Amino acid sequence: MKVKFLVTPVGLMMGNIESARRLKNALMREGLDVTDDPKAEDFDILHVHTPVPPRNFRVVRKTRRQGKPVVMHAHTTAEDSEGTWTASRALSGITGRYLTRFYNLGDLVLAPSAWTKERLRARGVTAPISVLSNGVDLERFQFDQARRQRFRSKYGIPEGAKVVYAIGVVCLKKGIEVFPDVAKELPGLRFVWVGRRSMLYHPLRVRHAMRRCPSNVLFIHNLEDIADAHSGCDFFFTPSFAENQGMAVMEAMAVGRPVVARNLPSYEGLLKNEKSALICTGTDEFVSRLGRLIKDHELVETLIKNARATVASHDIGKVAKELASIYESLLQSISRRNEVKI
Fold it and tell me: Strands (DSSP E) along 85-220, which ranges?
């Protein structure tokens, strides 16, 4: 079986691109022949990871004319894009209609969570939809003392310091305007935000939020290996307002970092309050819950234990096996459909 990944290197789609890269590697470990060469013509299935640019429509339509199945991976929804790039909220309706039209070209749409599937249906996606986790590489994402020492040495963080960290593009959707408010209330902790900046992402508001940050906040825009941050820090904090699943959340859970997160419907089944994470509704709760983690070591151990048990079912190897089975079923279905047409 030969699979072509359509992954267009567009700045707005960095999460999609990273997810596709990890999935490609996992599928290849399962023995599948996977290419992301945009010029490749010798393939059995087209798996689309980036809905932009519009020229991807032509690639998809050409593939369908050839009688080959098309899988759409819905890493992006209109709701998920709001609060990222400038004017994204104002253009949410247009974005939603574009994505609906694009995803409906697929023989199958993969949604990373039940919430994403629900939103796709609400937006008018009529193509078949299956829920498939983005997955997490449990071999790569585990605590490593050498990574911790390297990270802390590079950024001047003493071993005894407690560090709260966030991972993601520095933008409004990810909660950058909340970050300084929480950090100010907890001056005894260090706060680190790991993620790049872009002038596409509300540059004035983001810059203002960063300038409001107290001295206990550090921004790291270019980190060679994100796994270093997970081992180097202590408590994962995500004030994000929207996620389709949350890859960084799963990575933190795998490494054994207690998670403090906003109450989002996409986390259902992944995060359980007081069991595998601490779920909050606003700034005051973020502050109080992070404060609890510093004092309640028993709670920390409980969260770590339960989170690891939960995330085990999202291992990228298991996801790759499931996806390979999906590919096989889809090929058989398309083959039968083509035979009927003949």
Answer: 108-111, 129-131, 163-167, 190-194, 217-220
